[in-house]
Amino acid sequence: MGEPKPLTAYQQTYHWRNKNCGPWAREWIKKSVPGIKVEDGKQRVEVDEVTSVSGDCDLGQRKGKLLTIYDLEVELSWTGSDAEGSEVKGKIKCPEVSHEAIDGLSEYVYEITITTPSPANSSANALSSFVRSDLLPRLSEKFNSLRPALLEAHGGPSDEATSGVSTPQNQHYSPAPPGSANASSTTSATGATAKSAPVTSPSTTTPKPALTGTKVVEVKAELQASAADLWGLLTDQSKIPMWSRAEAKFSPSPDSSYTLFGGNVTGKIVSAEAPTKLVTTWQLKKSNWPSDHFATMTIVLDQGSNSTNVTFTLDGVPAGQEGELENALDGFYIRG
């Protein structure tokens, strides 16, 4: 066999490097979470210990930009007192502290158990409600600070993940997910709403708003890749997670259903003209997206001699959500 061919300029531009930051992330959570506490009269709850952290945490680098990718399961113990002054102990499990939750693409889910119930059942129920309403938002805030802490610890230009690459601290890549409100295309991680698994009864679901009007959102980019390569990234189920950072189900066949971003974007294929045009219905799984409403996503690929112009047009965006959806399309579909 002959010598391997050198990388093309395109391949070098899209070279990916990855650093395992799992041990650091697990240690950071074990040190940062204990001591978080909330009080309201005699009701008091404080995190005693993080008993378990499992999962992965990576820092990736592509085109000189840093990507944080992680999915961790966290379990902790807490001690508190109810309104009667009786000591109560419990546990909390968060199955997914992930970049999707920190980006606002999904919600944190918490499982709460009381291991030493209060003598008065009503007091125990009141304390579990206090944990949900006051402690869980504090935990979410702490989990949201994992990304900036990770970048500060491992994202410097002298770090081995970015050795030889000039990446100023103020250019760290933190994309906005579909539906996440951001001030600009380089906004850092957004907050996520805490959602717990109630101890005694399921929580109520907030009704979704009615559709009052729609708008068209369009974003464009010139990408240093062929239309065929980009078509594969956009439509090949095995390649989509490379840029969406989440599980996908996709087949470019008319009338077939698809899911992107771990099920947070769903729809059906309207038409697929490889490698130039893809039209789909598009629905966002988010509290402020009206029920049973689908927008239409049209992706047009126009290949030139050295690059491909890509246009993403989302027709049917609920009025008032244009800004956040524009940032989302730029952050996940283009910069992702």
UniProtKB/TrEMBL annotation:
Bias kind Low complexity: ranges: 179-210
Residue spans of biased composition, Polar residues class: 160-173
GO biological process, one term: protein folding
Chain segments carrying region Disordered: 151-210
Domain Activator of Hsp90 ATPase AHSA1-like N-terminal: 18-156
Pfam families: Aha1_N (PF09229), AHSA1 (PF08327)
InterPro entries: Aha1, AHSA1-like_N, ASHA1/2-like_C, START-like_dom_sf
Entry GO terms, CC: cytosol
Classification via SMART domains: Aha1_N
MF (Gene Ontology): ATPase activator activity; protein-folding chaperone binding
Family the UniProt entry places it in: Belongs to the AHA1 family.
UniProt name for this protein: Putative chaperone activator
